[in-house]
């Protein structure tokens, strides 16, 4: 009997330890984080916070965030919040080491992106360090300096005249690359499109397509991977360390080109009209009438090259995949391209901007791709003051994540949101904030038109002349910058001439 009692006590003891450990491990430390960030706001503000959970001390909710993005369902992170706290469209969380608010409705996204007085840039530490720190980059300069620099960077890639200038050499780069592809057994489409877009960007920046080695795209890929490092630890083996190493190489190469251009411009007795971005930056003056700081110029060039080639290459890869997964849509896009060629006079060589503007159905397919492919995952801001929205507070200093993917995948805005349906854009004018792949407000992407033009030119020559077959059509996709694990390995063959 006594031994039975001892056994029973032991069972109870083990049970108590297990339950205690469970309570400690699951609940208590989470309460610490909640307390650390939330309770110290004071009772009034605390009770006005949106619903959500602050996760674990130090790491916040990064584990469930990464788990979602490593699964096949990247939306599970947001869906989980909706499931637990309802459709409030605004949630509190803790990500990338910061207390944060996620906004998911068109109205809130628009508000955060357009009200510059209340929300400033708020990207994670990893991105700031990799793109040049808090002061010496587009992210760190004052509002007025940002406005001036932005104007300067945008002028060569916006407007009818500037865009028309780029078409000729984009065509050359695309056509010669496509010809190379058919001589190899298979290509990684994403990698090859990065090279094409990189050449285009170096041409716009430096005036020459091959002035910067193509191998830089590998360093850029490493830099890109580190931008949203959950653990920005500069120790070998960590993604962030690899990204910092890549940054060093890229900075050295860009600096060498800058030095070379400075010498050339100094030796040039006749001042030319400068149109390359590098020359515009070398000649620009800051608010005090001083030439721009060298480090700022290097960081601007580095960021511009990155922003200009990685994103467009991803989007063009998904466009190609979606089109080939939907033969009837592919056929309609192809017919539109044939019509454009048929309409033109026999003396015309190459595409014009007007012809590109006539690619209406392709343009809808591009918008649909931008909606679906979810690049970038979110746009980051920081509240400069306490802001009240929909009855909730966004506390001063907290990060705000504009979760554009949640807006783009909302079934109330886009029916059957997971389907690729270019026709949903027929006569559809998205309401403000409901289509924001390029952001909104004063920091909207200045390269939106250029990237669309690059995609149109690529699809034009690709669909008219080549056949595409994926080697692993079921290749899994990795997030948060969605890409097929095999970088879209494909065999490209030439279509017989009609
Ligand atoms: C599919 C292609 C692209 C996508 C999805 C994309 C997306 C975006 C988004 C969402 C922003 C706003 C970020 C924010 O508000 O914090 C942005 C900004 C920016 N993008 Fe793009 N972009 C693309 C192509 C390009 C290209 C081709 C260029 C250059 C030629 C470019 C250059 C920039 C620059 C310089 C900024 C910073 C603007 C500023 O801070 O004022 N992007 N991009």
Let me know the CATH homologous superfamily.
Cytochrome P450
Approximate shape: globular
pLDDT < 50 runs, ≥5 residues? none
Range of helix content: 40-55%
Kindly describe this structure.
Keywords: Heme, Iron, Membrane, Metal-binding, Monooxygenase, Oxidoreductase, Transmembrane, Transmembrane helix. It is found in: Membrane. The chain is α+β, with helices and mostly antiparallel strands. It has a single domain (96-494), classed as Cytochrome p450. It contains 18 helices and 12 strands. α9 runs antiparallel to α13. It is globular, with a radius of gyration of 26 Å. It starts with a helix and ends with a strand. The model has no long low-confidence stretch (mean pLDDT 87). It binds protoporphyrin IX containing FE (HEM). Protoporphyrin IX containing FE binds at residues 138, 150, 153, 157, 304, 307-308, 311-312, 315, 375-376, 379, 437-439, 443, 445-447, 450-451.
What keyword list fits this structure?
alpha+beta; 12 strands; iron; metal-binding; 3-stranded antiparallel β-sheet; binds protoporphyrin IX containing FE; 5-stranded mixed β-sheet; Cyt_P450_CS; Cytochrome p450; 498 residues
Quick overview of this protein structure:
This protein is an alpha+beta fold and 498 residues long.
Q: What's the SSE blueprint?
A:
Elements: H1 2-37, H2 43-48, H3 62-70, H4 76-85, E1 90-95, E2 98-103, H5 106-114, E3 119-121, H6 125-130, H7 143-154, H8 160-181, E4 187-188, H9 189-206, H10 216-226, H11 239-267, H12 277-283, H13 294-325, H14 327-343, H15 353-357, H16 360-373, E5 379-383, E6 387-389, E7 392-394, E8 399-402, H17 404-408, H18 448-465, E9 466-470, E10 477-478, E11 483-484, E12 489-494
Parallel strand pairs: 2-8
Antiparallel strand pairs: 1-2, 3-5, 4-12, 5-8, 6-7, 9-12, 10-11
């Amino acid at each position: 009997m006594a031994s039975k009692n001892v056994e029973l006590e032991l069972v109870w003891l083990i049970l108590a330890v297990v339950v205690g450990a469970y309570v400690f491990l699951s609940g208590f430390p989470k309460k610490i984080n909640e307390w650390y960030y939330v309770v110290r706001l004071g009772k009034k503000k605390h009770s006005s916070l949106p619903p959500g959970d602050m996760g674990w001390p130090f790491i916040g909710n990064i584990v469930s965030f990464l788990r979602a993005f490593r699964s096949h369902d990247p939306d599970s992170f947001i869906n989980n919040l909706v499931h637990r706290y309802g459709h409030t469209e605004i949630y509190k969380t803790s990500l990338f080491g910061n207390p944060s608010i996620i906004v998911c409705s068109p109205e809130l996204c628009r508000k955060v992106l357009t009200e510059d007085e209340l929300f400033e840039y708020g990207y994670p530490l990893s991105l700031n360090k990799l793109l040049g720190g808090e002061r010496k980059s587009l992210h760190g300069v004052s509002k007025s300096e940002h406005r001036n620099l932005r104007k300067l960077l945008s002028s060569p890639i916006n407007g009818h005249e500037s865009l028309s200038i780029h078409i000729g050499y984009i065509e050359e780069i695309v056509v010669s690359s496509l010809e190379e592809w058919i001589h190899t057994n298979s290509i990684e489409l994403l990698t090859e499109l990065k090279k094409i877009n990189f050449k285009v960007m170096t041409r716009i920046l430096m005036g020459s397509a091959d002035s910067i080695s193509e191998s830089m795209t590998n360093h850029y890929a490493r830099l890109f991977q580190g931008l949203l490092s959950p653990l920005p630890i500069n120790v070998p083996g960590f993604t962030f360390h690899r990204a910092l190493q890549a940054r060093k190489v890229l900075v050295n190469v860009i600096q060498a080109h800058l030095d070379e251009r400075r010498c050339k411009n100094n030796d040039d007795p006749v001042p030319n009209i400068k149109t390359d971005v590098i020359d515009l930056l070398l000649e620009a003056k800051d608010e005090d009438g001083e030439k721009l700081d060298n480090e700022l110029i290097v960081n601007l060039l580095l960021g511009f090259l990155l922003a200009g080639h990685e994103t467009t290459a991803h989007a063009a890869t998904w466009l190609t995949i979606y089109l080939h997964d939907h033969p009837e849509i592919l056929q309609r896009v192809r017919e539109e391209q044939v019509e454009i060629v048929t309409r033109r006079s026999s003396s015309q060589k190459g595409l014009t901007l007007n012809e590109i503007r006539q690619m209406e159905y392709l343009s809808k397919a591009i918008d649909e791709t931008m909606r679906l492919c979810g690049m970038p995952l979110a746009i980051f801001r920081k509240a400069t003051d306490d802001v009240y929205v929909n009855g909730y507070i966004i506390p001063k200093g907290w990060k705000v994540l504009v979760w554009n993917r949640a807006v783009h995948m909302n079934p109330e805005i886009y029916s059957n949101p997971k389907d690729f349906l270019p026709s949903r854009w027929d006569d559809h004018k998205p309401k403000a904030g409901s289509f924001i792949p390029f952001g909104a407000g004063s920091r909207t992407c200045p390269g939106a038109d250029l990237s669309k033009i690059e995609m149109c030119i690529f699809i034009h020559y690709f669909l008219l002349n080549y056949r595409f077959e994926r080697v692993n059509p079921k290749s899994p996709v990795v997030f948060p910058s969605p890409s097929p694990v095999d970088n879209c390995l494909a065999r490209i063959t030439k279509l017989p001439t009609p």
